[in-house]
Amino acid sequence: MVNFGGKKVGQVVAGIGGNGVGQVLAAVAVSLLFRLFTGPGPALVTDDDSAYGDDDERNDVAEANGDGEAPVDGKVFPVRFLLNNVSGEAKPGRLLAIMGPSGSGKTTLLNVLAGQLMASPRLHLSGLLEVNGKPSSNKAYKFAYVRQEDLFFSQLTVRETLSLAAELQLPEILSVEERDEYVNSLLFKLGLVSCADSNVGDAKVRGISGGEKKRLSLACELIASPSVIYADEPTTGLDAFQAEKVMETLRQLAQDGHTVICSIHQPRGSVYFKFDDIVLLTEGKLVYAGPARDEPLAYFSRFGYTCPDHVNPAEFLADLISVDYSSAESVYLSQKRIDSLAESFLQRSSTILYASPLISREGYKKSKLQKRTIVKKKGGWWRQFWLLLRRAWMQASRDGPTNKVRARMSIASAIIFGSVFWRMGRSQTSIQDRMGLLQVAAINTAMAALTKTVGVFPKERAIVDRERAKGSYALGPYLLSKLIAEIPVGAAFPLMFGAVLYPMASLHPTLSRFGKFCGIVTVESFAASAMGLTVGAMVPTTEAAMAVGPSLMTVFIVFGGYYVNADNTPIIFRWIPRVSLIRWAFQGLCINEFSGLQFDHQHSFDIQTGEQVREGKKPVCFIKKIMECKQNKKIIKMTISYIAPWETFWVENKLFFFVVILQALERLSFGGSRISDTVMAQSRILLFWYCTTYLLLEKKKPKYQQLELPNPEQTQQKIQLEPLETDLPPEKEQIKSTRQVESESPPLDMYNLEGAK
Does the keyword Plastid apply (predicted)? Predict the structure, then answer.
């Protein structure tokens, strides 16, 4: 039990509870700290690249009125339209490419179609999404979304990655033979047979190539047999050969009957001619939508823009719809050209071919009801747990580079500390040395575990968020499996540290005390890792986690029982030692070390036993009287007047040193505590951090913007749609005709997907 100015912690807390002021202040401090770390801040729109894609696309968007301004609290602010009057159609068997310069809205359009646009109160999204001619929602059909970043567990092989994904997403495939056959077919289909047994790899470990990772992303998304495939910049970061292989794979998937939509910046000529249809976007507006290859060149030639011979059509189109920022005049001319092309296509699109029934709000509501019946079947809780436990164990045990670095650092730090505190004896000066060593051991163990976790978990969280968004598993099985899988590996490094340090420093030489020492630092290591998980769940990036984690640990170090005098600690901070894992580890190590330890003593004021250190007791009464006397120096000189002057100086300072040590021990009194108490306190801290991590991950689960239906009166006034007969026999489906309907303007933000199931 730690004493604060003569009062025990329980007495201090009881005293605070009497008037309630301290509790209120402590609660306010905790709430402010929690708000500081978890609050969204003044910017309500996320900066995550997955939300808006390119950097220029991450802009604040407010709900807009007709004149391009948004009223907020009586004020009018300008509005940036990320997408404006974008309409189109994607068909099965055809590869549709969305092209445009950076910031044109390519990724935003893909996110809208896939229902993956991050929600924000500043964002307003309205439009219609039709599937096979019927109003529908994003979740009413199976789709695959291949993002720009290829995120995998680096220590798993390609085959293991696909097999685990198949087991998590397709629990109905119970037979191992059926699952292996299904995985092998995907490997063959995506051209991954040659690297099936290679590790995926990452920046630390060499693995498969970038093109193979992109095709592995496609394979993982194809496991659930989606009818629509979205691919965001699938050729980013790939060389020309790998980019062409990836696009050939997408084209083959389209020919197999999938509806494939991809965004691409500026493809090479051979890649461009693989597209069946293209959509040209600039500044969120349509410039062209229709067949690819020579048709867009013929269309723009009507306006006097002809593609020169031997020029890549994709480069010509990209230059045509991009703003030239080389000079003020070029900016004006290129912007004028883009506005003219967008307006021309808008007028041309007023004559539209429709093959869908009349859209109504009632039909849209029915589609919302229909989507609830399409629920992806997941495996049971225990099945998810065992699969995730197997994956977590493979990742933790195979991470050779990280484990080697941690092992070397544990041994190196133990050797350094052991050399500094080499062979501590039983002298009086060894008391301070032992306490310093135990404090350093507690700090080193906690910081090593924390640094490793905050450096890894934010990246892993991105993978988990994607898999949870697909409904592969729940959060509970994941966290529990991660905790259990990392116990053997996480315990190895504190054991290495203790095995080297303990004999070098000549700590309490019994096997049981050594076992307790290793047990205390191991539990502390797990608690620090759990705190690292919480930090990784609070912040969005690894860099932010590396900044927040050590800063938070520094607070616990300051209140770790060795540096701060409790009498000078503000009341609102006196709760921190109770939640400081450094303090509890240090207390447990001190109890383990000093209990039953005998020290060499020559004077009556020397500390004789470790119990005196634990309990902070003074060896003799006259020491207290000496320190309380105003003329203590005179008394000391009278006491030792019979010895030499140089010995007088030594004894005087030694006596003063021991008095200071005794006062420090009185403040650090552990007399009323046991090792089991400290271990239980660390276990409660570990459980607290894990529960906090769970709540944060559940709270920060990605939320996506809902597509709202536009004003039905406005839509029906501008567009007259002729319903078609949908009950025709199969042999007559090919002769269905569409009626060309004249309208004042095209529908607002309408997209039709065919071939979706």
Answer: no
- Sequence-separated (6 or more) residues with CB below 8 Å from residue 13: none
Q: Report the helix count and the strand count for the chain, using DSSP H and E.
A: 27, 16
Would you state the torsion angle of the CA atoms of residues 661, 667, 673, 676, taken in this order, to the nearest 10 degrees?
A: -80
pLDDT computed for residue 411 by the predictor:
94
Q: Is 19 exposed, middle or buried (0-12, 13-18, 19+ CB in 10 A)?
A: exposed
> How far is it, in rounded angstroms, from Cα 666 to Cα 571?
20
Cα 639 from chain centroid (whole Å): 67
Distance CA 746, CA 560 (A): 68
Average pLDDT, the chain: 74
Asked if residue 733 lies in contact with residue 338, where contact means CB atoms within 8 angstroms, the answer is: no
Token couple for 336? 């004028």
660, 662, 663, 667 alpha-carbon torsion, rounded to 10°? 140
Helix axes 381-398, 475-505, angle to 10 degrees: 40
Q: Give the residue from 524, 545, 356, 527 showing the smallest Cα distance to 438.
A: 524
State how far the Cα of 693 lies from the Cα of 460, in Å rounded to an integer.
14
Q: How many residues does the chain have?
A: 757
Q: Which amino acid is at 314?
A: A
Check: CB of residue 142 under 8 Å from CB of residue 89.
no
pLDDT for res 676: 86
Give the pLDDT confidence score for residue 739 in this predicted structure. Answer: 34
Domains of the chain: 91-161+199-359+721-753 (3.40.50.300), 361-600+671-720 (no CATH)
Residue 712 has pLDDT above 80, yes or no: no
The CA distance from 326 to 181, in Å, is 56
Q: Distance of CA 47 to CAs 52, 57, 120, 696, 697, Å?
A: 8, 10, 11, 18, 18
Torsion, Cα of 568, 573, 575, 578 (10° steps): -70
Q: Please tell me the distance from the alpha carbon of residue 625 to that of residue 124, in angstroms, as a whole number.
A: 77
**553 touches 444 (CB < 8 A):** no
Average confidence (pLDDT) over 643-664 = 45
Residue 358: pLDDT band with limits 50, 70, 90:
very low
CB 341 within 8 A of CB 321: yes
Three-state SS letters, 601-668: CCCCCCCCEHHHHHHCCCCCHHHHHHHHCCCHHHHHHHHCCCCCHHHHHHHHHHHHHHHHHHHHHHHC
Which residues neighbour 278 within 8 Å (Cβ) at sequence distance 6 or greater?
96, 97, 98, 99, 288, 289, 290, 291, 292, 296
What pairs with residue 447 in β-bridges? none
Among 356-360, 612-616, 670-674, where is mean pLDDT lowest?
A: 356-360
3-state SS, one letter per residue, for 542-571: HHHHHHHHHHHHHHHHHCCCCCCCHHHCCH
Place of tokens 């999204």: 125
List the Cα angle 718/282/248 in 5-degree steps: 105
Dihedral sign (CA 291, 297, 301, 303): positive
C-alpha–C-alpha distance, residues 624 and 460, integer Å: 58
Sequence letter at residue 232: D
Q: What are phi and psi of 56, to 5 degrees?
A: -70, -15
Task: Using a pLDDT cut of 70, give the percent of the chain over it.
Answer: 67
Q: How far apart are CA 409 and CA 415, in angstroms?
A: 10
For tokens 């039909």, what's the residue?
363
Confidence grade of residue 738 (pLDDT, cut at 50, 70, 90): very low
Is the pTM higher than 0.90? The answer reads no
Question: How many other C-beta atoms are found inside a 10 Å radius of the C-beta of residue 555?
Answer: 14
Rounded Cα distance between 368 and 366, Å, is: 5
